[in-house]
Amino acid sequence: MTPEQHLRFDQLNRMQEQLTLALTSYWERYSNIYTWGFWMYTLLMIVPLIVLYYRMDRSKALLLGFYGYSVHMLSTYIDAFGTRNALWSYPFQAIPLLVGSFALDISFIPVSFILLYQWTLNRGRNYYYYAIVLSAMLGLLFKPALTTFGLFRLYKGTTYVHLFIYYVIIAFIAKWLANLFLHFQNDRKNPDRQHASRKKFNLQRMLPRRARAR
User: What is the 3-state secondary structure (H, E, C) of the chain?
Assistant: First the structure.
């Protein structure tokens, strides 16, 4: 690390410390346990988890849990990106000093998609169609409702359509990850299928293109 880089890094660290102190001061004054916004986000964090506990299909617990964790992580990453780049913000927080909305990213959003995924599995419905519908409800109805009540704000030309697209991306990637690991699991349970799949793959790589076409 050069002296110039060291100096610049120390400056950024001090700025981060000042920002943390400012956020703590803001939370203590405007978003503490005596504000209604704090309790609204607390309910959005606790109630969905209670609903999931009673409504989750226990026979698919591992699959639903993996899928929900994927939604949680993707939602957290996108929310952190948006808040760090001042694309949107949350005037109230259930837990201070966390980037994004802890209540939404850890509970409300993942649980909403878990229950949708479970419903499509048990009813044999098209996941992608209903995932788009739920994404529209979250991005075009739920987030505007939060804005109306002063719980969410958009900046820099960000629109609710952008949020809708973000939720679609989250829903699709989480489903593809679940499908991928289900594929690995099924191959593990069927050694003959796994061997045949690998053999076919190796032959496809070894044969010339013309030979494969024949």
Answer: CCHHHHHHHHHHHHHHHHHHHHHHHHHHHHCCCCCHHHHHHHHHHHHHHHHHHHHCCHHHHHHHHHHHHHHHHHHHHHHHHHHHCCCEECCCCCCCCCCCCHHHHHHHHHHHHHHHHHHHHHHCCCHHHHHHHHHHHHHHHHHHHHHHCCCCEECCCCCHHHHHHHHHHHHHHHHHHHHHHHHHHHHHHCHHHHHHHHHHHHHHHHCCHHHHHC
